[in-house]
C-alpha cells in the first residue's frame, strides 16, 4: 500500500465512496476531522444543555409515574452527551477542552434549548416535537461515515424513541383532559412548533457546512429535505392528538405528495443563535455553576483513586472478581 | 491535578446475556477501576443491556494499525481454500 500523503488521501476517498466507515486511527483530511469535532461537540453540548429545560419540571411532575419517566429521560440525555464526548475524543479532542469551549461560548449547542419550559405541557411538546425533530436528524447519522459517531447515534436513536413517545402520550393525556389542560397542550405546541422546524438548520442555500458534509457522507440528507420529512410526519400525529399546528399555510400539496408549510422566521433563529434568546444566559450560567459546584466530587474521586493506588484502601470485591476468560 | 483530564480512559465491554461474549460498548473516564465499573453500569446498561461488564484501561490495549492493514492481514486473503464454498460438490450430495 502506498504510504505517501496522496496514497492516504486516495484510501480515505475510496473508503468514503464505498460507504465504508472511517475509524479513529485511519488517516483523514484535517478538515474532515475538524468538521466532525465541530458537529459532534455541538451535538454533545446540546444533549447536556438539553437536560435543563426538562429538569426544571422534575420536582413538579403531576404523578410519580411521570416523575420517574422524566428523570429517566433526563438521565438519558446525560448519557447521550457522554457517548458523544467519547466519540469526539477518538478524534483527539479531550472532554475538558470541549467543556471549556462550551462554558466560554466558543462552541454552540442547539438553539432550541434557549426557549423556556413555561408549563407542564412543554415537557410533552419537547418530547414529541423537539425529540421528534432530533430523531429525524439523527436516524441518517447512524450511517455517518465516521464509525464512532455512527455507533453513538445507533445507541442514541434507540433511546430517543422512548423520549418521543412519552412526550406524545403526555400531550395526548392533556389534550383529552379538561378544557384548561387541552388549552395548555395547544399553547405548548404553538410555542414549540416553529423552533422545532428551525432545529434542522438554515435553508440549504444558506447552510455553511452542508455541501462538504454531504460529500464526506457525514450528513446524508439536506436540512430542507429533513425538515420536510418532519412536517409530513407530524401532521397526522397532530390530528391524532386533537391539536392544531400553528401554521395557517400548512396544507397537503397533491402534486408534490408532501405538505406545504409557511415561511420560517429566520431572523428569530439568528437572534437566538447570537445569544439573544429568552434563556441563553440562564442555560450557560447554570451549566458553568454545575461544573464548578461539582469540582469537589471530581477532586474526591481522584484523591480516593490516588490513595488506593498507594495501597492504603482495599479494592472492593466487585473489582477483584472479574472473570478470567471470555 | 484533580480535574477529569487526569482520569484515565477505560474501554467498556458488555456481555449482553449469558452465552454470549463480551462486546465493546464504548469508553468512559473514571479515576479508578471501581468507578469505571459503576459509571459503565449507569452509562451502558440503563436498559438491562448487560449481565456482566469488563472495564479495561485504554492504554493497556495493543492494536494493529489500520495503516498496515494490507500487509498485516494479507496472508489470509489468498487462501480461499480455507472456506467451505471453495469446494465443488456434486449436486444431490447431502450433509456436506
Overview of the structural elements:
By secondary structure, chain A is mainly α. Chain A is built from 14 helices and 2 strands, in the order ααααααααααββαααα. In chain A, strands 1-2 form a two-stranded antiparallel sheet. Chain B has a domain at 4-66: Phenylacetic acid degradation B (Ubiquitin-like (UB roll), Roll). Chain B is 22% helix and 22% strand. In chain B, strands 2-1-3 form a 3-stranded antiparallel sheet, covered by helices on one side. The longest helix of chain B is centred in the middle third of the chain and has 12 residues, at 33-44. Chains A and B meet through helix 4, helix 7 and helix 13 of A and strand 2, helix 1 and helix 2 of B.
Detail the poorly predicted runs of chain B.
none
Quick one: biggest sheet of chain A?
2 strands, antiparallel
Major beta sheet, strand line-up of chain B:
2-1-3
Low-pLDDT ranges of chain A:
317-326
The helix tally of chain A amounts to: 14
Mean pLDDT of chain A, to the nearest integer, reads 92
What do we call the CATH homologous superfamily of the domain at 4-66 in chain B? Answer: Phenylacetic acid degradation B
Number of strands of chain B: 3
Mass-distribution shape of chain A: globular
Largest sheet of chain B: 3 strands, antiparallel
Q: CATH topology of the domain at 4-66 in chain B, anyone?
A: Ubiquitin-like (UB roll)
Helix content of chain A: 55-70%
Which range does the strand content of chain B fall in?
15-25%
Q: Whole-number average pLDDT of chain B? A: 88
* Class computed from helices, strands and strand pairing of chain B: alpha+beta
In total, how many beta strands of chain A? Answer: 2
Enzyme class (chain A): oxidoreductase
Keywords (chain A): Oxidoreductase
Protein name (chain A): 1,2-phenylacetyl-CoA epoxidase subunit A
EC number (chain A): 1.14.13.149
Amino acid at each position: 500500500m502506498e504510504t505517501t500523503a496522496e496514497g492516504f488521501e486516495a484510501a480515505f476517498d475510496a473508503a468514503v465512496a464505498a460507504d465504508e466507515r472511517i475509524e479513529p486511527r485511519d488517516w483523514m483530511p484535517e478538515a474532515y476531522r475538524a468538521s466532525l469535532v465541530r458537529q459532534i461537540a455541538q451535538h454533545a453540548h446540546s444533549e447536556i444543555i438539553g437536560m435543563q429545560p426538562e429538569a426544571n419540571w422534575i420536582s413538579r411532575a403531576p404523578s410519580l409515574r411521570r416523575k420517574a419517566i422524566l428523570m429517566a429521560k433526563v438521565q438519558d440525555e446525560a448519557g447521550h452527551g457522554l457517548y458523544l464526548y467519547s466519540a469526539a475524543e477518538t478524534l483527539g479532542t479531550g472532554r475538558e477542552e470541549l467543556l471549556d469551549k462550551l462554558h466560554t461560548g466558543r462552541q454552540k449547542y442547539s438553539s432550541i434549548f434557549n426557549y423556556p419550559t413555561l408549563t407542564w405541557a412543554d415537557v410533552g411538546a419537547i418530547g414529541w416535537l423537539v425529540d421528534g425533530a432530533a430523531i429525524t436528524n439523527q436516524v441518517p447519522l447512524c450511517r455517518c461515515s465516521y464509525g464512532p459517531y455512527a455507533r453513538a447515534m445507533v445507541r442514541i436513536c434507540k433511546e430517543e424513541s422512548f423520549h418521543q413517545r412519552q412526550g406524545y402520550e403526555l400531550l395526548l393525556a392533556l389534550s383529552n383532559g379538561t378544557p384548561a389542560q387541552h388549552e395548555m397542550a395547544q399553547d405548548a405546541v404553538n410555542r414549540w412548533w416553529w423552533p422545532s422546524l428551525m432545529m434542522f438548520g438554515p435553508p440549504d442555500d444558506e447552510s455553511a457546512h452542508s455541501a462538504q458534509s454531504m460529500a464526506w457522507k457525514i450528513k446524508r440528507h439536506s436540512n430542507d429535505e429533513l425538515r420536510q420529512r418532519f412536517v409530513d410526519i407530524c401532521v397526522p400525529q397532530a390530528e391524532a392528538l386533537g391539536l392544531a399546528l400553528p401554521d395557517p399555510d400548512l396544507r397537503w400539496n397533491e402534486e408534490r405528495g408532501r405538505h406545504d408549510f409557511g415561511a420560517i422566521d429566520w431572523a428569530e433563529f439568528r437572534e437566538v443563535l447570537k445569544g439573544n434568546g429568552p434563556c441563553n444566559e440562564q442555560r450557560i450560567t447554570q451549566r458553568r455553576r454545575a461544573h464548578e459546584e461539582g469540582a469537589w466530587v471530581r477532586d474526591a474521586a481522584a484523591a480516593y483513586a490516588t490513595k488506593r493506588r498507594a495501597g492504603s484502601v482495599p479494592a472492593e470485591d466487585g473489582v477483584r472478581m472479574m472473570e478470567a476468560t471470555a | 491535578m484533580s480535574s477529569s483530564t487526569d482520569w484515565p480512559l477505560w474501554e467498556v465491554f458488555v456481555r449482553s446475556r449469558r452465552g454470549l461474549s463480551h462486546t465493546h460498548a464504548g469508553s468512559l473516564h473514571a479515576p479508578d477501576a471501581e468507578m469505571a465499573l459503576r459509571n459503565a453500569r449507569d452509562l451502558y446498561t440503563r436498559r438491562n443491556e448487560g449481565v456482566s461488564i469488563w472495564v479495561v484501561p485504554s492504554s493497556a490495549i495493543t492494536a494493529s494499525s489500520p495503516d498496515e492493514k494490507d500487509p498485516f492481514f494479507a496472508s489470509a486473503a489468498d487462501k480461499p481454500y480455507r472456506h467451505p464454498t471453495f469446494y465443488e460438490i456434486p449436486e444431490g450430495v447431502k450433509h456436506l
